[in-house]
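Please check what follows.
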Amino acid sequence: LRYETRLQGYSYYRQHFRAMFQKRFAYFFRKRTFFLLELLFPAICMLLIMEACMMIPVPKEQPKLPINFQPYYSGATDANINVRNIKA
């Protein structure tokens, strides 16, 4: 089948939307339980995910830790610590 004129632009999208809407409407009347599951299941999953996100503790301000070289210090001699600063 060849068409002399093809729909373009707004009328094409309107026809496509109407066809998909009619298809979904026919599917709804054939299988109502599946349609309800398509609506309810994602909503219930989203609520459960949001509830789980509310249970996760929020990070708090941590106390500052002192810098202590005691593990590297032996007796009366100071330790040599080599530090290299590398910029990415």
User: Anything to note?
Assistant: The helical segments are 10-30, 32-55. The chain has two helices and no strands. The chain has a mean pLDDT of 83.
